[in-house]
Amino acid sequence: MGTRVVTTIGRLAAGVAIAFSASISFAAQPALTEQMEFFEQRVRPLLVEHCYPCHAGNKRQGGLSLEYRSGWQTGGDRGPAILADRPEDSPLLRAVRYQDDYPQMPPDGKLSAEQIAVLEQWVRMGAPDPRDGEAIEAAPGPSGTLWVLEPLPDVTPPQVDNAEWPLGDIDRFVLARLEQKGWQPSPDVDRGAWLRRVTFDLTGLPPTMAEVDAFLGDASEEAFARVVDRLLSSREYGERWARPWLDLVGYADQIGSANNVPAEQAWRYRDYVIRALNAEKPFDQFIREQLAGDLLTSSSIEERQDQIIATGFLVLGNVNIVESDKLVMRMDLVDHQIEKVGKAFLGMSLQCARCHDHKFDPIILQDYYGLAGIFASTESTRKVDRGVWSTVTLVTLPETLAEFTTREAALSAHDREVEEIRQEQALSARRIDEIDRLLETAEQGISNGESATLANASSPEDDRSPAELKQERADLAAKVAACNQRLWHKDYIRPSAPATFAVKEGAEIGNSRICLRGNPHAPGDVVPRGFIRAMARGTGPKIPADQSGRQQLADWLTGPASHVVSRVTVNRLWQKLFGRGIVDSVDYFGARSEPPSHPELLDFLARQFISQGWSQKQLLRELVLSRTYRQQSTATTAASTMLAADPDNRLLWRMSPRRLEAEMIRDALLASSGLLRCSAGGPALAPEFMENVGELDPKSVNPISFSLQRFRDDAPRVRTIYLPVVRSSEQRGPADILNFFDFPQPAQYTGGRPTTAVASQALFLINGPLLQQAAKSLTETLLADSSLEDEEARLHALYRRVLNRPCTPEELSNARAFLGASAPAAPENGSAGADASRHDSWQQLAHALLASNEFLFRL
Amino acid sequence: MRGSQQLSYVPAVNRRDFLQRAACGFGSIALQAMLADIATAAKAPLAPRATHFAARAKRVIFLFMAGGPSQHDLFVPKPRLVRDHGRRVGLTDLPSGAPVGTDKFLTLGPMAPILPRGESGATISTLLPHLAKVADDLCFLHGMQVDNPAHDLATLQFNTGVFNEVRPAMGAWASYGLGSENENLPGFVSIHADADVRAYGSAFLPAAHQGTVIGQIPTDPRESAIRFLSDPETTKDAQRRRIDFVQAANRELLDRIGEDRVMEGVIDSFELAFRMQTATPQLVDLSTEAAETLALYGVGTDATDKNGRACLLARRLCEAGVRFVQVTIGGWDHHGDIRGALPNSCLGADQPVAALIIDLKRRGLLDDTLVVWSGEFGRTPWSQDITGTAPLEKHGREHQPESFTTFLAGGGVRRGFSHGETDEFGYKTTSGRVHIHDLHATILHLLGLDHERLTYRHAGRDYRLTDVYGTVIRQIIA
């Protein structure tokens, strides 16, 4: 409160000065002068003391500023605070009177009756107020001070004392920081552990036993690079590195989060990201395709397909597709797209500027609406026939000849099946007609006093009672209805020309108006389409009047703003390898972020990233082949000073151990136990199973919905990235592990996952079926392997499969003790019981190893 | 983005400190004390925290009526709706702000009498006879408001304050603000949750504040209410042996690593998990309750069994120290044939909810337990006919976020009080509007927390449950 008083006195002084100049215009009217005195003596002090704390300066609770006349004239969320024509109804008075449904102001206690009377009198006077001026919200911070906006300098790697240690430039930067502190880097990790580390980091999987043997058998220095090149060219590389990108996109196989609306084509984007990474698509091109692929030229059908699919980036997040207020819905979508672009490429929270200039980063309202115009000129969703619903725009893809041929074949098979269902339905319908005739006849017969069987009716072979016939009719009617369901379902999964969720240029292209306080129903000035001024060096590309500006936005990001984009991108890759980014908050590089731990190194890498053609593989290769990356994660006694002074390892005096991400845990469990199967990607949802699809009736007011009742047979054994991702509920079936190990909610866009350690994870590891299945499979393999001569060999094999190393003598004796205790008394009656008991104790041991931190952490 | 927060929940006292202190030659008593110290620190995210000011409520039970119950059939008698039942709304009297086309709808009167009850005269439908008996303990808010007409999104907003972003649920905020009163239990439990996980998520708050879900309360006490709480295939001894093996290996690894807070957290979590295996089933086992209590909640009676168990478990969890218990009672989304369906929904919810209030009161718990009863929105005063051909008596009501009824009980709110009024249709609030942000502010206030000071730094910004909104509704505080 103390500081507030000081600042308001300062403001008051300024206000008085303005009042003085303003009062000149009132001087001709003595009555007004009197009113001014009343204001200055009675009203202003009251406002300053009771209202300014929340309604002046950059504080505008409820959108209302009471600092200037214009503040209450414009008003806040509830409109003008004082109504000239109906003074008694003025929100200001209703609020201070604590009247009906208005907010009670001031909130910490009602004003005295006398004070309220002052305000009433003032309002009745017509609220004379000399305070000219505009309430302006906090101006953006000086842009020059934010380091990420500085151009990338040409940094020379520093000199180091220990010239033996560095393998490359990265190491010189890291070592120099350590040497400044008088510290030393940690020793190299042993080669087997390095192989496990780098294989997890580049492919998300542990190495196989053969890969371990091959690497350990090659003592040359080049062996390291050979391993890295092998891993970078594997399919698994793309499968591992696509996932962090999907985290940023808010990817799910669901549109929005209402009513389980399936995103049947989302997988195309997921597979596109994997392809792009494996094909070493330059990152600037990756950006360009995702923002404006549809506007680029192409030289093949496959390339064209990828360009269109890539724009799914803009629509595969948590897009709202049901909102009665279409204007709000449209603006919310634009807001999502701006948020995503800001976070993914610029490391900035742009969406704050929807309502006001950013409080501490150099992003102003005009920048936001400049971008908004670009996305508002882009078609992302469209209204559908069903109820109040919209959906994400679906764009038909050009088809290769091979795809066309395959589809034609599938289509004729499909049509045959449809025809069969139709015939079945027609048959039932005909039989219903027959029964109806029979029943009609019978009823006539009954009314004529004849016996209630149909034996004597038209059909001599049918001697059933009307009740029986009615039952049959009901069964047939159910069958006809079921056939309808099947036909709708067939129609839903009909092999059709490939299509994908994408954006295209909007029907109307133009600039956006500012939405006052973010409200699209309160339009302000028109802002020309454009980019974030403070972030660019030089002017950005011009947006032609007939284009949305997406292509120019991509050009701007990879051109004038590339110093920001490359820093953000390099930092993300660094974080995935070293556990923390050089900038810790990987999605936020603004004024409130922690300063980078190695700013020169980040600049060096960002500059190199651009000069090496935005190559992610090239950068990763250099990072994992560095000496810094090769350090061991265990802290020797010599490291105790560093451990005490820098427990978070900000200066990289060792490798930080890191718990595997959820997908890696599951994939590693499957790989180590021999259960893992390759997948070529493709649709994640399984709409071919009718039980997975709801709301098929074309007359339904709700969109078609999906559920995950049934998974394809191979689902439990494919890599986690290929499993369906749900936005509105927990992850299902084989993806259950994601619910336990910090998988980010796909309704958000995030580049960093937390690492939690909670009891529900321990229960999953202790009692969940996934580890039990893996342990069982692993045990079966080990016990069936006749090449393993004795228990010791078998134990070594177990450790090698799970931890990629043989067991130590101590572990050997512990494991033996465990096996002995787990099977205390082998049943005497025959070998079957003994086998079962032996199997069980081995499975218990395998389970324990799979639940251990050495397996679950990348060391 | 979460990087800067990511390790904040792990023990503040680490193993290394402990070893250093242990090495200084304390006796075994000091060692015990230190172990206790470490045990507390290990649960640091849930350790009790001081409130901003004196609390009126120590805990909250949120009875979430998923689907949106009709205030026009349950709590808000409007003579106009009775008078105009079946008549077109018409253009002349259309309340301002009503959606275009509303004039063509038919006014739908309440399906059963809504009568004044108790000394307070609170109006409650004859469909809720049990609740009517505790009317004088309730505090009604008739001017509730949310901003979205879709279930999922309104549910999100009711729980987290927003519907277009990922933010922590109010239970997670309560757990974060207050910690847990029981170190072996989570601070936030959600029973029968069927909504989006975000509705009980912790978002950027430490994961320990995430709502622990009890999907189904087992009728057989041997069954588990928490996922993977037990493994029927493995004996307790075998399981303990396996855990011991894991823990020994984990400690050995940690010794080599030197220090790692996540590894330490994992070691602690295994012990807590093992303890939960024995503590939680007892808590969830309702068979130890007196027969009279079970009957009070309607446990064992078909219509009320599920909700009765949930409400009873909510009381037990509160007694055991859980801060925020959410109970979802669904079945209120009556778009069609409300006259046929609403009585059943009432039958399933009425007795268990009233029993909870009675039971809390007689145990002296109601004074410092805030009970909140609400749907994500209410329903319209005019009818909805989803088929287009149904007679009026088969019509239902559409969603209405503009105004609806919520009631509170206990925890420092006024008893037998009604706040807020709507126009003659029951569409637009004329006084006592309570936006969901205001309710959130009030709930935190009753818990002793200032909604403007309960913040969490994330992505360079301080977040609040109430964002930049919210006013404490002082009129309803006793």
UniProtKB/TrEMBL annotation, chain A:
Keyword Methyltransferase: no
GO MF entry, a single one: electron transfer activity
Ranges where the DUF1553 domain occurs: 549-819
Keywords: Signal
Segments of skewed composition (Basic and acidic residues): 461-471
Keyword Iron belongs to the record: no
Pfam families: PSCyt1, PSCyt2, PSD1
Region span, Disordered: 446-471
Signal peptide: 1-27
Compositional bias ranges of the Polar residues kind: 446-459
Domain DUF1549: from-to ranges: 170-379
Database matches in InterPro entries: Cyt_c-like_dom_sf (IPR036909), Cyt_c_Planctomycete-type (IPR011429), DUF1549 (IPR011444), DUF1553 (IPR022655)
Cited SUPFAM superfamilies: Cytochrome c
Domain Cytochrome C Planctomycete-type, residue spans: 51-109
Protein name, entry field: Planctomycete cytochrome C
Natural source organism: Lacipirellula limnantheis
Automatic annotation (TrEMBL), chain B:
A family per Pfam: DUF1501
InterPro entries: Alkaline_phosphatase_core_sf, DUF1501, TAT_signal
Top-level taxon of the source organism: Bacteria
Organism: Lacipirellula limnantheis
Protein name, entry field: Sulfatase
